[in-house]
Amino acid sequence: MKEKSIMLSKEQKTELEELARHDRRAHVRLKARAVLSVGRGMTRILVAEVLGVERRAVGRWVQGYLIEGTSCFSIKSGRGRKARVQGEEVGEYLRQTPRHFGIDRTRWTLSTLRQVTPSLKGMSESGVWRVLVRLGYRYKRGQPVSHSPDPEYREKRGLYCRL
User: Fold this and answer.
1) Could you tell me the pLDDT band of residue 80, with boundaries at 50, 70 and 90?
2) In angstroms, rounded to a whole number, what is the distance separating the alpha carbons of residues 129 and 139?
3) Does the CA dihedral 35-40-44-49 come out positive or negative?
4) Nearest-CA neighbor of 41 among 22, 13, 60?
5) pLDDT of 163
6) d(Cα 72, Cα 67) in Å, to the nearest integer?
7) Reported confidence tier of residue 141, pLDDT bands at 50, 70, 90
8) For 36-75, how does the pLDDT look when each residue is reduced to its tens digit (9 = 90+)?
9) Which of 54, 63, 65, 105 has its CB 3.0 to 4.6 Å from that of 98, i.e. a possible disulfide?
């Protein structure tokens, strides 16, 4: 079966070259490079071989570009594996002290959070860390607290802090 070649205008070539070189998303750069190569006369089979993808994928990208333009290069919402971690659940556990769950600690660690939170069980510590970052949680150190056996410490400290 003979492949149809596509004709790209100068503006389309410029747009695809710009995407292929400078877009921050790797999948967009790859798809733009594939369509641009087909537009320059390479066969879909050769483009697929050079880029390490399937020939049918190159054909879909070319057809999508001809119909929708560069918007077809973006990944559509709803694609990919669904998250197994519920953000609300993790937030509820983080708002409580580990002591509430029978752990003799005052602060959460990745390991203790993983032990207690049902949707985090079985994950590695780095996986728990990535989940927390994705959900917008950040590590925060506790403030240092000074204590003194001096019974008048609070009064003296109050005078010092007011100066």
Assistant:
1) confident
2) 10
3) negative
4) 13
5) 44
6) 9
7) low
8) 999 999 999 999 999 999 999 999 999 999 999 999 999 8
9) 105
CA dihedral 101, 106, 107, 113 (to 10 degrees): -20
Q: 80: which 2 tokens? A: 């990919």
Cβ atoms of 73 and 32 closer than 8 Å? yes
Contact predicate 64/28, CB 8 Å: no
Give the start-to-end residue ranges of the domains of the chain: 10-73, 87-134
Sequence-distant (6+) residues with CB within 8 A of 137 are: 90, 94
Measured CA to CA, the distance from residue 106 to residue 98 in angstroms comes to: 6
Please state the length of the chain: 163
Distance, in Å, from the CA atom of 136 to the CA atom of 145, rounded to the nearest integer, reads: 27
Rounded distance between C-alpha atoms, residue 160 and residue 76, angstroms: 60
What DSSP character marks residue 135?
T
C-alpha pair distances (Å), 24 with each of 27, 29, 148: 9, 8, 55
pTM score > 0.90 for this model? no
In this model, does residue 22 exceed pLDDT 90? yes
